[in-house]
Amino acid sequence: MKKVITYGTFDLLHYGHINLLKRAKEFGDFLIVGLSTDEFNLIKGKKAYFNYEQRKVLLESIKYVDYVIPETCWEQKMIDIKKYNIDVFVIGDDWEGKFDFLKDICEVIYIPRTPEISTTKIKLDLNARIPRKF
């Protein structure tokens, strides 16, 4: 069985996330998703709309996802790859080159993001639509 892993916050789940997960699953038989915890998101300077448990439930309902694990720190990727006997590490191409150091222990693939959508764009669009009261 060929195992694949990817990581992310997956907040405000949208079709770009689904595209990423679908393409990641195409590289193997079993897809593990490392889901950033709320505490790790704070370290990264992010605040998710949905908490970790809510985001986990959403991910677990997607047919491409076989297993969800908590991502608690940057260094965890190397540990997870060894722990779960990962064959392929997949991440969006906005991280191009950042995880090449993992090539010694597994295949590393950077895949294109869906360009017209992101959680950041959704948040900006929603904020622009909400009238401000002063």
From TrEMBL:
Residues 5-123 form the Cytidyltransferase-like domain. InterPro entries: Archaeal_FAD_synthase, Cyt_trans-like, G3P_cytidylTrfase, Rossmann-like_a/b/a_fold. GO terms for cellular component: cytoplasm. The keyword Transferase applies. Transmembrane segments: none annotated. It comes from the Bacteria. One of its GO terms (biological process) is teichoic acid biosynthetic process. Keywords: Nucleotidyltransferase, Transferase. The keyword Transferase applies. PANTHER family: FAD SYNTHASE (PTHR43793:SF1). This is Glycerol-3-phosphate cytidylyltransferase. It comes from Caloramator proteoclasticus DSM 10124.
